[in-house]
Amino acid sequence: MSPAITNGISGMPASLPGLGRSPARALAATCTLLLLGLALSTAAHAAARCPDGARCGKVTVPLDRSNPSAGTIDIAYALLPRRDTTRPSLGTVLPNPGGPGSPAIAEAAAWSELLGPLRRRRDVLLIDPRGTGESGALACPSLAAQDITTIDLQGVATTCGGDLGARAGYFGSAAIADDFAAVRSELGIEKVDLWGQSWGTYLMPVYAARHPDSVRSIVLSGAQPIAFDPWGRDLLRASKRVIGLVCRRTHSCSGRRVLGELSRLVRRVRRRPVSFTAPIPDGRVRLAIGERELASLAYGRLQPPAVYGLLPAAVGAAIDDDYALLKRVVATIRLSEIYVLTLDPSSGSFAQLVATTCHDYPHPFDIGAPPQQRQAEYDRALATIDRQEFSPFTPAAWFQSGIWAAPACLGWPADPTAASPLQGRQLPDVPVLVQSGDLDTNTPIEQGRQAAAQFPHATFAVIANAGHTPDTEPCGAAMAIDFIRNLRTDPDRCRRAGSPPAVVGPPARRAADLPAPAVRAPAPVRRAVAVALATIADAQAVAEFAQIIGRFDALRAGDYVATQRGLRIEGARVVRDAAANGTLEIRRRGTRTRLRLRGRGVRPARLTLRSRRRTTRITGTVAGRRVALRVPATH
Q1: Which of 37, 187, 235, 572 is the most exposed place for a label (fewest CB within 10 A)?
Q2: How far apart are CA 504 and CA 317, in angstroms?
Q3: End-to-end CA distance of the chain, in Å?
Q4: How far apart are CA 348 and CA 111, in angstroms?
Q5: How far apart are CA 67 and CA 289, in angstroms?
Q6: Are strands 551-553 and 283-289 parallel, antiparallel or unpaired?
């Protein structure tokens, strides 16, 4: 339900294999997931082209079907044929990756892989929704004049609405659904199996209500209902539930204690935010740890469940006045938001996102009314709500957490046509599978149940330990494939699937606090190796980000600078009393890291660490003494 474009385009992994072997490695792997989506989104949405073997084209449709004078728009499609053409097709799957604002054709490889078991006898029809990808991607040129480091969703929506002007009302889900039907009809396809992820779970019911005779079945993964709480209170309740659930399943923390510490920290930064800076391609940007940022962290901001493995340590350390880990997490979340706003519109259109959501989503005011009247209606509605329902945050902070909340569309152009896209239509009685990840805070299981209840006879399934779009998890994918094939499935088959994210411990402050490697060597050698391994883990955690923007901060001080072959490590401190300089090179068969260590917490050392598969070989000197060791690899 959140408007974050990364929902549909990041390609961010949702599982977290291999965590728990050591705090440093767990921290590195978790941070990597928070960062990796940025690099992957750039690669996934290079210039779109017709996928290999596909039949591509465009269908011209009216911008406004009730007003032919409004003009037309071309809707792009790619039809991926079944692999076995010697026998008749068993049908066509029509998927959508969510967003809004995300194209589908550029995700052809991902969809082909996910739907691979069905591709033998079934075709796949990918359509870029109007305003995205190759279907007239919408832009917000006026955003270039805004300070995107501080702008919130309401500011983005107001700016984009001003740019779109009279076109603002043309990009609702009903119009998109009718476009999909036009493409289907043009290609002579009688029936489709609809498959929606995230916002696609909003779009596909709209399609089904408007074109019921063409629907064979529906899969909704990470489902949201058409009508939901515009204040996002259900999302906050889900966030608290997930924090407690992760703690209980890992036996690594107390959910009650974590929420108590979060409340204390919120009160502290509300009075005095913690300022810091983070790197961007042309310098540094000033950021802060304030109530808004903690609300984004609690919400999860469309990160995988791994973020809840970091939250206890980040908040707990900050309570103890160690903000290093919290700064790292806040920086990745805020820089991700900034990055999304700078995407090429054909890769991810924020303008289309706000156009669709402001037109379709429920608001606590009349969006067809003038702005002054809207504000008055909004203020009256908010005054009737118990502020404790947003605890430990203020309503304003929660609305800025990344949820698509009540005030987002206050500045949107007046749109008297905006309304529920169902417009009184009934949803058809067709086979429907609704999936919810029980660690999803974006469209949580509470919303999944509501989404299932919209249909006469839907199957509702909870995927254990899955976050948003649980069909990207092995068990969830297998369940959905089974449903398309047989029009039924066991809804309980994934109740014990997967594993919860590993909960990391607080970051070490001193070299002596790092876990010593399990090698037979004098204490100074083991401590130097521990610092070296922790530095490598920290560098690998931010390597993808460093390659995008040129450099990234080490956990406590210093930098990792991107090079053609990896990273240059400049005064990197993962603990306060030891610093590392050197290089990390990524090679075909592993990595080679050369480090010079110094500081009060470690004896002077020169080490070369060669990691290959499951082993890291370490050679060099510590305090002039030669060493030659092997330890488990850090990745």
Answers
A1: 187
A2: 12
A3: 34
A4: 17
A5: 49
A6: unpaired
- The reported pLDDT for the residue numbered 25 is 52
Q: What is the pLDDT of residues 195-219, one digit of tens each?
A: 999 999 999 999 999 999 999 999 9
Q: What are phi and psi of 60, to 5 degrees?
A: -85, 130
What is residue 183's three-state secondary structure? helix
Q: Which amino acid is at 176?
A: I
SS (H, E, C) 359-374: HHCCCCCCCCCCHHHH
Coil vs helix vs strand at 557: strand
User: Quick check: helix, strand or coil at residue 344?
Assistant: coil
pLDDT digits (tens, 9 = 90+) for 493-532: 999 999 999 999 999 999 999 998 988 899 999 999 999 9
Asked if 131 and 349 count as a contact pair (C-beta separation under 8 A), the reply is yes
Q: pTM (2 decimals)?
A: 0.90
Report the alpha-carbon distance of residue 229 to residue 58 in Å, rounded: 37
Distance, CA of 578 to CA of 480 (rounded, Å): 50
Residues 101, 106, 112, 118, CA torsion sign: positive
Q: Is the pLDDT of residue 21 over 80?
A: no
Query: Are the C-beta atoms of residues 198 and 220 closer than 8 Å to each other?
Result: no
Q: How many CA atoms lie within 13 A of 315 on its CB side?
A: 30
Tokens describing residue 26: 């767990």
Confidence of residue 244 (pLDDT cuts 50, 70, 90): very high
- 536, containing H or E segment: helix 523-549
Q: For residue 431, which of 222, 228, 226, 212 has the smallest C-alpha distance?
A: 212
Q: Would you state the structure tokens that stand for residue 551, as one six-digit string?
A: 């450099």
Rounded Cα distance between 190 and 175, Å, is 20
Amino acid in the structure at residue 87: R
Cross-strand bridge partners of residue 124: 80, 93
Report residue 536 as tokens: 């490598």
CA dihedral (299, 303, 309, 315) in degrees, to 10, reads: -50
